What we know:
The protein is α/β, with parallel strands linked by helices. It folds into two domains: 9-185, CbiD-like; 190-377, Beta-carbonic Anhydrase, Chain A, CATH 3.40.1050. Helices cover 35% and strands 23% of the residues. The chain has twelve helices and 20 strands. The protein has helices at residues 22-39, 129-143, 158-161, 190-206, 218-226, 242-251, 263-270, 284-294, 299-306, 311-320, 326-341, 369-376, and strands at 9-11, 14-16, 19-20, 45-49, 55-59, 61-66, 69-75, 89-97, 102-106, 109-110, 112-113, 148-154, 172-173, 175-176, 184-185, 211-215, 235-237, 256-261, 350-356, 362-365. The strands form seven sheets. The chain has a five-stranded mixed sheet, covered by helices on one side. Helix 4 runs parallel beside helix 6, helix 8 (284-294) packs antiparallel against helix 9 (299-306) and helix 9 (299-306) runs antiparallel to helix 10. The model has no long low-confidence stretch (mean pLDDT 92).
Amino acid sequence: MSQTFDDPVWHNGKALRKGYTTGSCATAAAKVAALMVLRQHIIHQVSIVTPSGVTLHLNVESPHIEGQQAIAAIRKDGGDDVDATHGMLIFARVTLTDDDRIVLRGGAGVGTVTRKGIGLAVGEAAINRTPRQTIEAAVREVIGPTRGAQVEIFAPEGEERAKKTYNGRLGIIGGISIIGTTGIVTPMSEESWKRSLSLELELKRAAGMDRVILVPGNHGERFVREQLGVSGERVVTMSNFVGYMIEEAVRLGYRQIVLVGHPGKLVKIAAGIFHTHSHIADARMETLVAHLALLGAPHDLLLKVSDCDTTEAAMEYIDAAGFSHLYTHLAQRICLRIAQMLRFTQDPPQCDAVMFSFDNNVLGANRPIEEIVGELKC
Length: 378
C-alpha cells in the first residue's frame, strides 16, 4: 500500500513527519486566492494535488478580497526536515484580467535571478519550473479557459530568510526561491534514504530486470522517458549516492548500469567523487577546467569556466568556444572511474554514462547513444 501524506517516515524507531515545499504553498495560495476573487467570499482551507500525486489539505491565513483581487497565504511546513523557510508565510495575490492569459511574477521576498545557469532567465523571479506549472494550472482550473489573471507570489520574510540559504551563491538576490519537484518534503536520515533507494533496485531485480538506469532526480527520469524513449520502469533514483547505488546494483547482479544526468551532477564522478552532495565535495569547475585543458582549450576559456558559479553558466562558454565534445570525453572518463572502482569485481557490468542539458538535448555519451538505448530496450 502506498503512503499518504499523513503516514510518517520511520527511522530508528522514530516517526518523522513529512512536510510540503514552498512550491506547494505558492500553488495553494494562488488557487485559494483565485477561488475567493471569483466567489467573493473568504475561504479558510484549500486542497491541492502535488506533482507526486499526494493531496494536501492546507489552512489559509490572512485571506482578503478587494474587488477583482484577492490575497491569501499558506504557512510553510517542512515537517521534521526543517530548513530556512520553515514556518514562514507564502502569499499569492490574484487579480482577474480581461484577456485569457495567466501572468505569473514574483513580489517582495521572492528572489530574482541575476546569473545564467539555474534554468531560469536572468531577471525572472526565482520560481522554478515545476511550481510555475502547478501555480498556473491551479489558477487556470479555477478561472476557466476564457478569463485571465495576474498572479503575484510574495513572502514578507523572504529576504531575511534567504540569507540562511545558498541563493546568494547561485546569483539569486532579494529573497527565497519557490521550489519543489514533488511538492512534498520527506525527512530521512542518509542511511534510511540510501536503503529505500536500494530497495527499489532489489524489487526490480527480483522482477527479472538486469539493466538499470540511475538518475540523480526527477528531471533525469523525465528525460529518459520522453527524450530517449525508454520505459521509466528501468529508472531508479540514486540521489547523491552514486557509489553506493552502483555497488548495490553490482551486488544484485545487474549486467548494465547507465548513469543519466545533467553535467552539474555527473561531472563530479569524472573526478572520482562518488557522493555528489555539495557538502561532501564540489569540484565541478576544477574538473571542467582540467579536462578542457587536456583537450587543448585556450587559457582564456579555462579562466572563464573557473570563474563560473554554476555548471550551466560554464557550459555556455564551453559551447561558444567549440568544445562541446568535452561532454563525450567526460562521459568516457566517468565510465573509466567506475571501472576503477569496480576493478576487483568479478564479471563487472557494462557501465555507460549519458549527459543531457536543461533543454533536454543529449550532450554526450561514452559510446553512441543509439547503442545504449537499443540495449536498454532489449
